[in-house]
């Protein structure tokens, strides 16, 4: 099977416009004849569901949360990028496109990234009209701030809760459609299986998390908006329930997985501070606007940070990357922190942390300004650590945060299974090998509001659909398969808890498939993950039964999928003999320790086809750069 | 902060299902780091239960950063525990003493029926939003963002109100189990912005009607909601809702 | 006008009714307290005041006012009871641990109890004076209204009932006054602190004012 990216021809500025014109339309009267199933209610899912319902489609929405508003988009703090150029600092669609492509280390499609930049402005308009309370200037107009990987201010924000406000905007649009009866909302439903009939995605089987019953949903197209898979690392900044189950089960049904090894390690998370920790907490990257990152110049300096004089501090980001300073992109900032700690300059009890210091900013701007900008983040920090960041520098360390990889999709956001669309973080997306700050919100909403509603119509209009009801044999087959899987999980009755096994997987992933990787470690990891998977299926213990609310069972299913996905990530990382963005192979680095890309051999998207466990076939979608010639990414 | 180890006695409300009878059961949390969060402490207790083949305590949680609004329980009689301005997931064990006895109950309100143990059904909140907690603007029809200037003070006040995470602690804290703080936060957020004004009359009427229909109690201006709100949303929003309601009922033509 | 009455069946409307009747009753308390001050001017002044209200043409206005006042009380009580019953129903299972937040006041959480005591007091009070002034048997012996007041307040039991009841009136008004402003939507960064204080002063002024009469007649009045 050849990968067809369906990138339209023509100059980059016109591709999307021309493509929209060429897409087939579904007439208004016919739209209500189509049922579209949307799984997930984060920014991408909610915005897509609302927009599709507004157009007149029948939309079925599933979420495993108790409310659509809980989706993890809500936790995004810093902001959302757009090429509005309000600050008059020379921004443009082309520059946002350029920055995003470069930030992604030239591993994304030019056409997709350009389209993303193109619709970014519409997103801001849409959100403002919905009542998203973005920060404003005294004149009443919108305020912007700067973010990592950009030399200008193009980030719109709502205090440190931008993701929350954008999600509540999309949620309100979705709620409106629920109220109007155009969206049927099913909460506390976890998608477990995809139903493919005659090669087309025609429905899903989901578990009612309250009653334990398996339920079938049929439609003409399925949209997955189920987010990323950072929880494969166990400790990550993702919410506890984030998982890869929906995309992984779709992958096993035939959807190719794109660039699974491209994961983002966020530089400003709180360091691990006790052994019983369940997750890592993100501190917004926006903090790097005013905070300065440093370590003591002397190895193993145990003095209190405030006692270390200025000339004994190493502001290493400013030293190594003078033009971007503390605002270098995430992959670079994360690796620099790791390098500092590995070399013994790390601080804190574990030596696995660096300082993020606001004393200069407080001196320059006053405590009140800092409080206005980051008050809630500082409060959050103090709540967790017991330290007051107004007085003592924060301690930070990188943490798994976002996955650029995901299900492979074409320009229309459709996966290799016809009728299965994948949007937001769940697809392999527009971020290449590294995502810039404030771009995830942009991509989720671009997909949901402004791209999918067009492209899905083309699919519906250009295909013939046989009528499918939920008593179709494929539904029964899929339901039985899921039932068996659940029975199997419960019947093992072994000795180890789900979390225990998950933690072990996470450690393997972090040690060998984490911030820096090498062939030896990856090979070892593949072996270890395989063994652990076996151990899981032999020795996991899931108490309770399946006809009830059973949170252990929910987690067990998700961890079972991570055990498989982890292996694919390691295989992908092993095959990609280069360093790019978040994927850093120790064998491929420059003399000063920077990532060394290999455009000759690896300028492609790795799309993996599932054959059997441990057996994947690699398909390559070559990346063609007509506008931005790949160069060594330098932030010095 | 130096960390200590704590041993605690937990009295936890266990209720197998919505119609089942519930009761307090006793558990012991041993050797808990004072740096651990309250939910991590529960995780440890749960993992021990799982290892023994017993059903763990069902409770909801997700982001563990205080923003998703999923977690929520009543700890020693206080929604989200003894501290103000935080969610349960942000509560850390350093605020407890070795040997403490901790009672954990679900949020209690007729409109929030228990599903299992500490999990309650808060879909009533969604229904209130569905009744009118939005601005009716279809995708694609928005004007240029900066064509709508908003007074900074109003934008800030709107943001204060919009910070609501929909956790339900206001209902849990209110002696009347009233949802007025939640509803007023959304009414205020949208009434403070020019974008929200075209629907201000219909919105407040529908949301209040839905709130009443769902079996929440009536606000009697006690202020417990404000005191327990993890996002410290102010009851000035309730006063604003009241004004919006009278305005809609007595001064406008918009009837609901 | 259907919409008008329906408005008062919404939760917010019910509270509006509470606030409006509450304000009206507070207004009445001021008038009542003003009338009572005639007690300090001696029997003639007080009896004259009562005479003025009951035996001159003013009586027609007074009768109408009495009906309105009774309606004010009735609506306030009916609405309060109905709110209380609904609020109880809104939480069928109570919390096992009864803790309170550090901010809300005791008075705000216990309005129904202060109300209950004030209601009992009201019944006693009406029996003591309103009934006695009008139909009381003591009137046949030639005792004046002033005498009835003196006699009642010199009874230690009544004195205590009256003073204690005024403590609960204070508690009721302490929350009620400012709460009524909040209900009317009058919450403002600049004025609310003033309203809260004004409410406390008014609560003290009214309850202490009324309590001063039993205390005066019990402890300081040397009439017999």
Task: Please describe the topology of this protein.
The complex is a heterotrimer of chains A (636), B (256) and C (224).
Chain A: H1 12-22, H2 28-31, E1 35-39, H3 43-55, E2 58-62, E3 80-81, H4 93-103, H5 110-130, E4 145-146, E5 153-156, H6 162-179, E6 183-186, E7 189-197, E8 200-208, E9 214-218, E10 221-224, H7 245-252, E11 257-258, E12 263-269, E13 292-296, E14 313-314, H8 316-320, H9 330-342, E15 354-357, H10 359-365, H11 367-385, E16 394-403, E17 406-407, E18 420-422, H12 440-461, H13 473-492, H14 498-512, H15 519-539, H16 551-575, H17 599-602, E19 604-612, E20 615-622
Parallel strand pairs in A: 1-2, 1-10, 2-6, 10-18
Antiparallel strand pairs in A: 3-5, 4-5, 7-8, 8-9, 11-17, 11-19, 12-16, 13-14, 13-15, 15-16, 19-20
Helix pairs in contact in A: 1-5, 3-6, 3-12, 4-5, 5-12, 10-11, 14-15, 14-16, 15-16
Chain B: E1 5-14, E2 23-33, H1 38-51, E3 74-75, E4 78-79, E5 101-105, E6 114-116, E7 119-120, H2 123-132, H3 152-162, H4 169-173, H5 180-191, H6 200-213, H7 224-228, H8 236-251
Parallel strand pairs in B: 1-5
Antiparallel strand pairs in B: 1-2, 3-4, 3-5, 6-7
Helix pairs in contact in B: 2-6, 3-5, 5-6, 5-8, 6-8
Chain C: H1 2-7, H2 11-36, H3 43-55, H4 58-89, H5 106-109, H6 111-135, H7 145-153, H8 156-183, H9 192-220
The biggest sheet of chain C, with number of strands, parallel, antiparallel or mixed sense and barrel status, is: none
The largest pleated sheet of chain A is described as: 5 strands, parallel
Helix content of chain C: over 70%
Radius of gyration of chain A using CA atoms only: 24 Å
CATH topology of the largest domain in chain A: FAD/NAD(P)-binding domain
**The CATH fourth-level homologous superfamily of chain C:** Fumarate reductase/succinate dehydrogenase, transmembrane subunit
Please tell me the CATH architecture of the largest domain in chain A by its name: 3-Layer(bba) Sandwich
Distance between the termini of chain C: 59 Å
Helices of chain A, by number, come to 17
Mean pLDDT of chain A: 95
CATH superfamily annotation of the largest domain in chain A = FAD/NAD(P)-binding domain
| Strand element count of chain A | 20
The overall pLDDT average of chain C reads 94
As an assembly, this protein is heterotrimer
Task: Sum up the overall morphology of chain A in one term.
Answer: globular
Radius of gyration of chain C: 20 Å
Segments of chain A where pLDDT lies below 50 for 5+ residues? Answer: none
The low-pLDDT segments of chain C are none
